[in-house]
What we know:
Blueprint lengths: L18 H14 L3 H15 L5 E5 L5 H9 L6 E6 L2 H12 L5 E5 L10 E7 L7 H14 E12 L5 H17 L4 H11 L8 H11 L3 E8 L2 E7 L1
Parallel strand pairs: 1-2, 1-4, 2-3, 4-5
Antiparallel strand pairs: 5-7, 6-7
Amino acid sequence: MRDQLFNQDNDLVNFTFDAQVANVFDDMVRRSVPGYQAMIEMIGLSVKTYGQENTNYYDLGASTGTTSVAIGVNNPHTNNRIIAVDNSPSMTKKCKANLESVVDYADVICADINTIKFNNASLVVLNLTLQFISPENRQTLINKIYQGLNPDGALIVSEKIHFNDPHKQQLMTDLHLDFKRANGYSELEIAAKRQSIENVLITDDKQTHFQRFKTAGFNTSTCHFQCLNFASFLAVK
């Protein structure tokens, strides 16, 4: 379904992942996030390298299940479980439906990802999710993930990022707005969504992500993909 949530007939104030958003989410993210398809493809490839036999894969903030599907269709290993977690009942309903036709070893859980216990994990993915967690809770979550990962396991974090250089920040912002316009969003829709989401989505810069991985104990971390102001980070235990 095409995303028209932020047209002139909409009175959304604070962005929430409710049924309205769930119905248009896949279209919204494709038209709003530059490089989104490449992010998903890289996650699918990563399970081949970092996935391990007899382990769990966690998709945190799974939304409609696109990331879990990519993991499932690319997974060459055996005796795995995909654990897809989202706190929106509308999202988890769609996630279950999307996964049912792809894999038979997925558990879809409606819960706050901050309450999840991680164990025997070889791959954990936060795809456009950490940015919606309160900043004061982010390090604790990354620490828990690290502790639940097996040696040589990997964490992938894809996020909208900001730049401390104001000129670079403005350049990336302008290009991102051009990307949205090119994908059919009107000036009204762009402005309305920005107002709705500005107090909900709180970005970090690259260095903050790297420091967070280091504090948790990861041996290696790198930014393995970036398109404008969206980046994917890979951290290996």
